[in-house]
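User: Predict the complex.
Assistant: Input components as received:
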Amino acid sequence: MSALDRKLGRDLWRLKGQVATIALVLACGMMALIMLRSTWQSLLAARDAYYTSYRFADVFARLERAPDRVAARLEAIPGVARVYPRVVEDIMVPLEDEPDPVTGRIITIPDDGVPPLNGLYLRAGRLPEPGAADEVVVLEQFATAHHLLPGAKLPAVVDGRLHRMTIVGIALSPEYVLAISGGAAVADNRMFVVLWMLRSTIAPAYRMVGAFDDVAIALEPGASMPAVLEAVDRELARYGGHHAVARERQVSNFALTMELSILENLAVVIPAIFLAVAAFLVNVVLSRLVFLERTQIAVLKAVGFSNRRVARHYLVLVALVVVIAAVLGVALGVLSGRWMTNLYSDFYRFPTRVFQVAPQVVALALGIGLVSATVGALGAVFRVARMPPAQAMRPPAPLDYRRTLVERLGLGRVIGPSGMMIVRELQRRPVRTAMSTLGIAMGVGIFIMGRFSYDSFDHLFDEQFTREHEEDMTVTLSRSHDGRSLGELAHIPGVSLAEPMRIVPVRFHGGARWRDGVVFGLPDHSALRHLFDHETVPIVLPERGLVMTDKLAAVLGLGIGDPVEVEVLEGDWSTRTLSIAALIHEPFGMQAYARTDWLSAALGEEPRVSSVLLRIDRDRLPGVRARLKNLPAVIGVSSTQSIIDRYRAQTGEAMLVITLILTFSAAAIATGVVYNNARISLSMRSRDLASLRVLGFTRREISTVLLGELGVHVTVGIPLGLVLGTWWARMFAMDTEAIRFPLHISMHTYAVAAAIALASGVASALLVRRRLDHLDLVEVLKSSE
Amino acid sequence: MPETVLVGRGLTKRYRMGEVDVQALRGVDIELFDGELMVLLGVSGSGKSTLLNILGGLDTCTSGSFGYRGIDLSGADEDELTTYRRHHVGFVFQFYNLIPSLTARENVALVTEISDDPMDPAEALALVGLEERLDHFPAQLSGGEQQRVAVARAVAKRPDVLLCDEPTGALDFTTGVRVLSVLERVNRELGTTTAIITHNAPIAAMAHRVITLGDGKITSVDAHPHRTPVEELRW
């Protein structure tokens, strides 16, 4: 080992505090990159492999009832490779351990047990046997949530009659990677179950022998999707066919794809911000560090080392910092990536363990880390290497301090000589002041960026959502219920108010643009459902016309007073031209509202009730729930609170992981900046400070001179960081068709962000203060620098 | 007549120090002869360090030329100057400039590892009387010991020229004498051409030749046919 290598090792040890803080920041960037990118890639790869191996269909269509021979006609459509006709029926599952009825969906499989499309991955048990009535295979998510194993019984109301199904198998399906029914906004492992049954055993109950009401279709490679969709719609029109949808619009896949695209964005933006901050910090710190080494560099050059050799020496030092960071960053990245993927796997189910780290991702993280650190140090190394050694060995020329603005304003006497030293130092080194301040601001900003989604969710649910939804429960009625259901519900003891709601599935057309959504019909002056515009001003439903969410109107390119074509996706499938009376702002979905009486008249139908909103006396809730489970017309019950809880469960944990990581990183960055600045200032100014001590200044006074400067950096950096964080958060404020994520940052978050920076500042200052207290006056003054 | 090792002609140097324009050298002609021990005398600010730095390839001159054994180095680029320093020049500085993270032996080894025909670091340290302190770090050595390590580091590569900038400037009298006698011994035993900068006039008595510098110019050149032994120097 050469002497220079030994110097390297010992330098690394001497600078351990600084090396550790820089490496930590760099590691945070690498961790974020590896975690997010690997999670995204793993889920993407798992999805693609799953869809291919289990023959996930390309086209899905619902219809009323068609004889089996129609399937053959569908198969004859050019581009269609395979057709899987089936019976799909929504049922109610009155599970004993669940206060509310669970929404169930029966899907038939052929009697040989092997669906030609949307294959089942049997996790446990077996497929139903032909001839054995009431044998079912259930979706794994539900089975896990309720600890159900093969052999367990499951009550189900099939066509108005209670059956006790026997669970024989537990399975996964590419169609239900996410356990979500068409009607719900969010997945629910507890409250939604898919039951696969042999077609021969269940078709008679629905009068579907030799017929089907749902079809999945696989296309040949290169087939034209629009052409097939059109042909399928044409074929199924006379059988009550709804619009066929492509795989992209299939509910589970749509949600999964959206989650993946959010994750992909995060995987780009967060590491980019992180690594930029890390590169910036490494640059600031390493360039000063190298500059402090100028005398040693001069000696190395004086004894005959070339510029290249000297540069290499310091670059190896940087590389070692990167290696330390990489070990930490890769380890943390893999761990947190696995953790995050596991969280996702609770909701997004794949047959195999999905987490994998691609070597390219690790290489990318290493490469970016290395480049950012090297670029940081390179400038400083070359600046010093270029200096003639004689000049480098001389102490730097005294800086030309000037009278500052503070003095010219006559404040000099107020702040005293120590204050003046601080002010002049800040003014003399504007770039350093700006860089340090910006560094601290970035730490603060990253924290806010991490916390904001939390705040926004709280705001969304605690204020916005609860302001709009005053009902305690929404009861969904089956399609075939009779008009007495509303009365029955209203008379359940404990129900203080029952409001009928009509939900019409429609396709909105605005010129060439269209979107599928629903129109909610509400009673005049609904007491339970409230509408607000984007400034939270309440909107009263007008006598005529639709009240549309602003997002839907924007997507369709429509405004107040414009006509909108509304194609009803049920019943007579008619198309009406309605007008937009007002716009509202809602966080979820693509929908419009209207008064039920006007809506029925406009659509030319008898008034009907699809759902009922209930206000319930809180202490009589269990009784109401028990009654609801016994009403055959009820197919689902949801409460505002349960929607909030489910959404929190689905996204909350992943968000918690990200928040924790960002918090940790914010603290690392703030400490990295403040501590390194303090240490470097101490090295650069120890001679001045020792001179002051010799002149009779107390420790406290010289601390003020050194730490006062850092105090100013922190004090300016914090408000700047609050602004920066708000600006970054704005980039993440989601405005998608499914969800409008508001930008909301609580005072608490701002306060904690500021406190982290302040605490990091104080902790760093204390560490440096300890060194300052042990400043060896004679030694410092004796040495040449 | 001994061979000329180093020669400078019409050397000038101007640089800025903060806001001040410094004219450090104003046309200096100088030679350094093979095997001689030369003392460059002058008050502080007279330009002697600047001159030594230029002759040692640590700094460049504003105008004029200098050469080493007939090779003109005034237009040399960074790489050529590095090679020149690496193979031919040894430096001793007022503040030792040791690498604090390396032991005495390692500080010397730093140079011997990149030299063609170096001494063993231990041998070089023995030459300066530090055979007992090989594995001490600079912080564990006294100022005089540190300076002797610096001398060992400078001579270990067997340089043609040893350039010493105020080698006793930071040392007390006794320690200073010790360092000077090491330099004298190196000059005598190894025949290394040596230039010592000092503002301390009595030290000049140990030299073969004394060049006095004032305000950036040479004011006198004196040969000493009878040198004073180092032990007899007093200041």
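The longest strand of chain A covers residues 495-510.
Let me know if you want any component modeled separately.
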